[in-house]
Amino acid sequence: MFSGLASIRRPGASGLRSLFLTPAVVGTVLLTAVGCGTDDPVPVSDTPQPAVEPGAEFELVRSPDVAPERPDARVGIASPDEFERFDQGETVAVEFTLSGYQLEEETPGGAERGLARAPGQHLHVILNNERYEAIYDISDPVEFDDLPAGTHHLRAFPGTDWHESVKSPGAFVHRVIQVGEGEVEPRVDLDAPLLTYSRPVGEYSGADADSVLVDFYLSGARLSTDGYRVRIAVEGLGEAMIDDWAPYLLLGLPEGEHTVRLELLDPDGVLVPGEFNRTERTITISR
Predict the structure, then answer these.
(1) Which residues contact 103 (CB under 8 A, 6 or more apart)?
(2) Architecture in CATH for domain 2-17+68-179
(3) Model pTM?
(4) In the beta sheet, which residues pair with residue 86?
């Protein structure tokens, strides 16, 4: 993983398990603007909406179900220290701490959501801005090998067994380390608003392709209709605005590869500075 940047060794990791269930996405939802060239949210009533709007390539809806609140969830990094320096070629062992959340357990209510699922609750661990790695056991340190010289960012937060992020205060950690002799040069303002891309990633097949989770972790900012917003774009199909920090669902994506982009915008609609506030992932839809 991590696109060849480094290798990771993790205890207790398991592959993704998909449960092919019928999606339940009707109910009270918020439909945001979808279709090429549309920037503003479109308000709708509480009436259930069609799966695909006429003339649109896909639909984005606010998930009618969200993860159970976990106000006591706390994630930390016992080691390394912030800005700790490692020799090039040295293995970086990261010791995570977690309280108020149980890894490997099945999240209550997961089977009813109709979303791709994993073999239990886990940590989403992100090196720099690569795709996250799901970690199910932190009893031993998570080790990173072959990190190149330079400044590296580690981020982590808990996820449900359907990969929705736990959004409680304290359920996010961000640690910067340095490899080699150069100066520490963080690529983001550590005190500024930060968007951490989580889902969607990878391949969705069968019933899992009908409802694709869109989720992220947000720190240092609050979303609103007249404040910070997240813009989601699916290359060639359209874009939409998200003004509520909640899980969303992409419905009606056609088969094939799609590039999904998430961007954090300030109240003036300008991209918030920082390398991680604009992230793209390629996903595959197959039915």
Answers:
(1) 120, 121, 122, 123, 135, 136, 137, 138, 158
(2) Sandwich (2.60)
(3) 0.81
(4) 179
